[in-house]
Amino acid sequence: SAGWGQFTSDWIAPFGTIFLNLLQLIAVPLILASLIVGVASLGDLEQLSRIGGKTLGIYVVTTTIALVLGLVLVNTLQPGKTVPQEMRAQLEQTYQGDIEESEEIAKQAEGRGPLQPLVNMVPSNFFDSASDNSNMLQVVFVAIFFGIGLLLLPEEDSEPLLTLFESLFELIIKAVEMIMLMAPVGVFGLLAEAITSIAAGSPADLASLLGALGFYCATVVIGLGIMVFAVYPMFMSLFTDISVREYFLAISPAQLVAFSTSSSGATLPVTMEVSEKNLGVSEEVSSFVLPLGATINMDGTALYQAVSAVFIAQVLGIGLAFTQQLNIVLIAVLASIGTAAVPSAGIVMLVVILESIGVPSAGLALILGVDRPLDMLRTTNNVTGDTMVASVVAATENQLKFPTDGASVATADVQGSVREEPVG
After folding, report:
1. pTM listed for this prediction
2. Backbone phi, then psi, for 243, in 5-degree steps?
3. Model confidence pLDDT, tens digit, residues 238-272
4. Where are the domains positioned within the chain?
5. Cβ 31 vs Cβ 143: under 8 Å
6. CA-to-CA distance for 330 and 68, rounded, in angstroms?
7. Are 374 and 304 in contact (CB under 8 A)?
8. Which of 7, 19, 100, 347 pairs with 379 at a CA distance of 20 to 30 A?
9. 2-422: which CATH topology?
């Protein structure tokens, strides 16, 4: 009824708007601090340049595979197009201003040269870029640029700045955790507003939207399944002698903890334990590759972001040009370095991606209700990818000694405590 719609608009929806504003508020500082710290911390790569180069190379390759796979699936299956035409028209009307702006961006993009995205990455004024979330690629460029600058400075000059940015990064992680405490209320506010505007038309429309959401979830799950059961085993078969069955048995404790906590960071102790005890990765490799992976190797998150961004655009009737989809790949690969290893941090990065391709970030309301189960699955994917990269790097360094019968095998309960059990 009109009364319920008015009540939602006046008293419930504002909490959703506040939550969305907080996500947008934290996006630029998160990218800036985490990338500067991430790049500047690679000073250790001088003594580990070989291992570091391989690690970063494989992480970039698998993240790119995940993104391209996500884009192929969402463009082929088109889950957003299953929403009825009348409802899409209604949603388009709701976001009319944003959609017109994004169409204008797409039109301008088509008339430009092939290197224009590269030109757009380099800002003439950083403060202009930082004040507008749609220029996120420029913020990424500035962060990497200054991070490299810090690397090249003598240690006594770079130390105070690096300490400052590390403290800023810790502060931002704390801020993300505080914002996520508000997530249930914020998500409820966003969903209530979306549902009342859709259900005002007819309840059948709501059922159609739920069906489209189910199709969207299936698209993400298919992509994650291909990564976990096809792409990672392929890398394991090419570079190691560990069979697919042995590999999945060895890493299952880490997968279980990842699934239950939705946090690569919280799972890290178990991931390191199973990599060293069950897969036979040397401590030298695991202590470098896995902490780095928990921070920058976000294949599952990247795939989810690609599918989600295009799905929201499809539902809102926004056509994405090839250059905009290329932008998704670029930003997601670079932003995966800045995605904190805390639950639902991928949502913050999704805001970054949506705004950079001209899709209204309020469209997030369409998918937030199903984010938690997908978060559990994509974290499991991320941790599986980390163990694969550790095994491959160790194998190429001749530091992979897969345990035979009688060795200790690490297992884990859901809380993440690790214990050892004899094999055989």
Report:
1. 0.76
2. -70, 160
3. 999 999 999 999 999 999 989 988 878 778 888 99
4. 2-422
5. yes
6. 11
7. yes
8. 19
9. Proton glutamate symport protein (1.10.3860)
